[in-house]
Amino acid sequence: MQIEDLNAIAEKHIGSRKKIIVRTCMSAGCMSSRADAIKKNLETAVKEQGLDAEVEVRRVGCMGFCGQGPLVGIDGVKEKEILFEHIKPEDANAIIASLKGVESNLEIGDPDHPFFAKQTKIVRANGGIIDPEKIEDYIAIGGYEALHNALTEMQPAQVVEEVTKSGLRGRGGAGFPTGLKWGTVAKSPGAKKYIICNGDEGDPGAFMDRSVLESDPHLVLEGMAIAAYAVGADQGFLYVRAEYPLAISRLQIAIKQAKALGLLGAGIFETPFNFNVDIRIGAGAFVCGEETALMMSVEGKRGTPRPRPPFPAESGLFGCPTLINNVESFANITAIIKKGGDWYASIGTEKSKGTKVFALTGKINNTGLIEVPMGIPLRQIVEEMGGGAPDGRKIKSVQTGGPSGGCIPAEFLDTPVDFESLAKLGSIMGSGGMVVMDDTTNMVEIAKFYMEFCKDESCGKCIPCRAGTAQMENLLNKIIARQATQRDLAKLEELCDMVKNTSLCGLGQTAPNPVLSTLKYFRNEYEELLQPDKFGPAATATK
User: Fold this and answer.
1) Which CATH architecture has domain 355-441?
2) What are phi and psi of 280, to 5 degrees?
3) pTM here?
4) Which CATH code for domain 17-111?
5) Spatial CB neighbours of 357, under 8 Å, sequence gap ≥ 6
6) SS3 per residue for 332-372
7) Tens digits of per-residue pLDDT, 359-371?
8) What tens digit of pLDDT does each residue of 377-391 get?
9) Cα→Cα distances 279→143, 243, 247, 463, 472, Å
């Protein structure tokens, strides 16, 4: 495979396209609402109405506006896309008839809606446009060109330098500088090195990585291959949770297609570079999102964290230097190599560069996936793109960062969404979950929900997390049952401090965040549930 062969595939595929493209969203959300039957009926309707020569019905990944799904988009009829929302299989005939000018009563969305118009797409640029099961679709939009450029025009150190220049920080939650991590792995001695893509997305309400894997699997594979070249690895692993069967299936198809064209395997683009990727399926343990636990799982062992140092960059998988990034991090790499680190660094804020994909969900009118520049005000996401709370209710809080994050009250909606600003409020960026709550939400119940989740997902290896989360949940239950006093509230705060500062891994260290943030901003909701203390003033952690 040479660049000329890649271009020939692209030209042939583009030349075979029909005038009108009917895009059917076939991501997991729409598939659960019979998107497969919608696509089949659309194909039948095209034949029955004699439009085979000019209409192509295309399977595509997530279009983003998940709350309005199933979605069908049409290109080539008007100057801009026509978007049909809440489609059922029986609507197929009416959709195809509309191509001939026949009016229908189907619900038509607005492609210029703020939900779409205010996005800046890098990671999700191809989502909802290309067929994720056809490598030709990916090549036709410039796929694998960045890998070719890296292999034939750049030294590994130059690739690392470009990623460093971009300012990209890990999108899995910790926000560690990606270029620094790559550089450390590249410099680590060892004949064998590994690349791992962390697709073990487990935060409640989060589905960003799943969508990228379902919608654009080759983008992630290409990013992994570029990373492997940069750090000197020849073997990669994609770790994906078993609850994502569609993502796993499309990754398997993509790997097979890339190998068939010589874009994975030995001598890629007729260079000395070799790279293979295997899939490892996780059993749904939330703790395996932690990188050392994930490596244990890949090795076939029980997924429990281990102390650091040594860090994975020096001694990771099977004791070898290992680069671990999450799905969204790898999905940014192709654009950085194509357009340059300076281009990427021009987006976002001084310390938080580029864009971030969020799963916008909860008590909000417009739910789905959004990709926005770092530094965008939270209010713009929630009120303009999300359309505010349903039924005219007031926004009470926005929870970011999943079980590891915090609840941000409405008074801080003008806060820029970046790593530093969220941390100042006691929350984190996390992997990208964003759950909106209205004024009917009980914040103590929210804290209890996340604590119960962390308790259940604790691996049990360290006592602070194993016992501390259970004790915190018990105290929260006691408060909700109106059986607690100020002493219990003080004990809850002491436990938060202990678990946060003594747990082995990030699960325990961040488990208290929802409790701490709700205590900070909604303490009155806790105190309203307390009984009078019969034993005098409460003892506090500082006394």
Assistant:
1) Roll (3.10)
2) -120, 130
3) 0.94
4) 3.40.30.10
5) 123, 124, 171, 208, 211, 212, 328, 369, 370, 371, 432
6) HHHHHHHHCHHHHHCCECCCCECEEEEEEEECCCCCEEEEE
7) 999 999 999 999 9
8) 999 999 999 999 999
9) 21, 14, 11, 32, 37
